[in-house]
Q: What sequence folds into this?
């Protein structure tokens, strides 16, 4: 099939902005940089690196990404006001290809209850702010928040105005996941008919997944003529999330006969991107998640297994290798050297400094002494996690438990140069350990979620643990892996506390409005 006959769909990745708004998905600067590097390897056309006005930390993260990541458009989000827009430009101006994404709601519902503006006032604000943004950069995107619930005639007027003011991309968000595929297809077509200048700009869509239709709505928009899709890795995002990048890309890839469209995505990097995001945020995908879920290419039914053995296409419309999933991952052991370890890290998609590689190699050797088989997932757990500024360091865990004794945990935690120790009982060994750590750190954070899974299901497997804590409405997830579940749990809890410490010590310039597009 000649792909030259197909139109190119731009992939605008907002994992670092809208995706990070998912509860518990907050990332520090190092984690954002690590993920941005992987997104560049994945081949996205644009990276929405953050909302610079939200906090000093977000500003510095966007700036750092703009300074390092080349060959990709780096986008900063801004509300439709001069302060936000200037702040966004101040962060993205270091990029090879800087862009400003400004937004304001256009639905009567938002006008009345959120913005307290008339349609005329909103129109003037949208047009003037796009013109202001265009004075800084040639690439300006305008989003009409809650577009799918907006009056069509008014929306066409606003889009006409912002295009005339210099918008190079116009985004049509289904902000609350309300629309349906057939309805959205017609909506996009009517916009194309009602806005004369729309053929001269990039028409984009941004769909949320409240009804589970984000990917379907995005694909319908492509059929109607949209040239850009805004999406996130693993579909993470506010509420039920966003359209999943991997599902959109592979739908276009597998069904070129339907969509007549291609992307610039390197599909071999899809699974690695999914895994990296999972390790950074601690938010796992469900086993039956399309493309990247554990069971996405698993076949248990006898008739399916028989068909696959005879001809893969009987039950597989794509292969694991198409998305970078390896069938033979057992390659390293305790006798492997640093060179082989470094090559494996590179093959898995990680770009680490020599010091980071050295630290990961030491941990790898320790792990190899404890378990016979080392899999790619084990390497992921060692190197995928960035290390924020650490106030707390877990030094020692010892637990006494059994069916006839109350669980008792003794821990030692280093805080700065001071080693502190404590002990506590609990409902189980993990609960006792977390209680003992809390006695030392006195964080007042509440554990609201705890998840453990094994990396390969044998008795010597590492336990991969994520712990989510809540403090003053902020949710932070920590993650760790260890062959001892209690140790993994303690480390994950301390990891969450360190992230919380960083979060609380960044000077925040909190937005007065919710960040949605």
A:
């Amino acid at each position: 099939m000649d792909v030259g006959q197909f139109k190119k769909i731009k992939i605008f990745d907002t994992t670092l902005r809208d995706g990070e708004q998912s509860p518990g998905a907050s990332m520090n600067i190092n984690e954002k940089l690590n993920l941005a590097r992987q997104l560049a390897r994945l081949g996205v056309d644009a990276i929405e690196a953050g909302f610079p006005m939200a906090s000093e930390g977000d500003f510095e993260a966007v700036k750092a990404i703009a300074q390092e990541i080349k060959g990709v458009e780096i986008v900063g989000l801004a509300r439709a006001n001069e302060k936000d827009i200037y702040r966004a430009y101040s962060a993205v101006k270091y990029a090879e290809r800087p862009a400003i994404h400004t937004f304001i709601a256009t639905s009567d519902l938002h006008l009345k209850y959120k913005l307290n503006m008339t349609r005329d006032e909103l129109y003037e604000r949208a047009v003037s702010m796009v013109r202001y943004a265009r004075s800084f950069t040639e690439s300006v995107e305008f989003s009409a928040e809650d577009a799918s619930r907006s009056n069509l005639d008014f929306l066409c007027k606003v889009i006409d105005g912002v295009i005339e003011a210099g918008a190079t991309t116009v985004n049509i968000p289904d902000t609350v996941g309300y629309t349906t595929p057939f309805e959205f297809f017609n909506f996009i077509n009517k916009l194309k008919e009602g806005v004369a200048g729309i053929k001269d700009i990039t028409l984009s869509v941004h769909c949320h997944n409240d009804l589970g239709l984000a990917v379907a709505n995005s694909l319908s928009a492509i059929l109607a003529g949209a040239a850009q899709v805004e999406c996130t890795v693993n579909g993470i995002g506010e509420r039920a999330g966003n359209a999943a990048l991997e599902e959109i890309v592979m739908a276009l890839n597998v069904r070129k006969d339907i969509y007549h469209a291609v992307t610039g995505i390197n599909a071999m990097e899809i699974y690695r991107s999914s895994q990296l995001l999972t390790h950074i945020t601690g938010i796992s995908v469900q086993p039956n998640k399309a493309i990247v879920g554990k069971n996405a290419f698993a076949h248990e039914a006898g008739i399916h297994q028989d068909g696959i053995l005879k001809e893969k296409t009987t039950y597989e419309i794509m292969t694991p290798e198409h998305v970078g999933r390896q069938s033979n991952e057992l390659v390293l052991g305790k006798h492997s050297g640093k060179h082989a370890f470094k090559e494996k890290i590179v093959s898995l998609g990680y770009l680490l400094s020599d010091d980071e590689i050295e630290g990961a190699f030491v941990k790898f050797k320790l792990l190899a002494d404890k378990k016979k088989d080392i899999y790619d997932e084990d390497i992921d757990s060692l190197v995928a996690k960035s290390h924020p500024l650490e106030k707390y360091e877990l030094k020692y865990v010892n637990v006494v438990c059994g069916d006839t004794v109350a669980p008792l945990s003794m821990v030692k935690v280093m805080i700065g140069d001071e080693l502190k120790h404590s002990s506590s009982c609990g409902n189980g060994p993990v609960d006792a350990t977390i209680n003992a750590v809390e006695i030392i750190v006195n964080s007042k954070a509440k554990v609201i979620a705890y998840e453990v899974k094994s990396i390969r299901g044998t008795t010597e497997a590492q336990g991969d643990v994520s712990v989510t804590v809540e403090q003053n409405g902020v949710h932070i997830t920590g993650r760790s892996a260890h062959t001892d579940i209690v140790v993994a749990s303690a480390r994950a809890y301390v990891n969450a506390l360190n992230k919380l410490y960083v979060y609380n010590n960044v000077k925040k310039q909190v937005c007065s409005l919710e960040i949605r597009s």
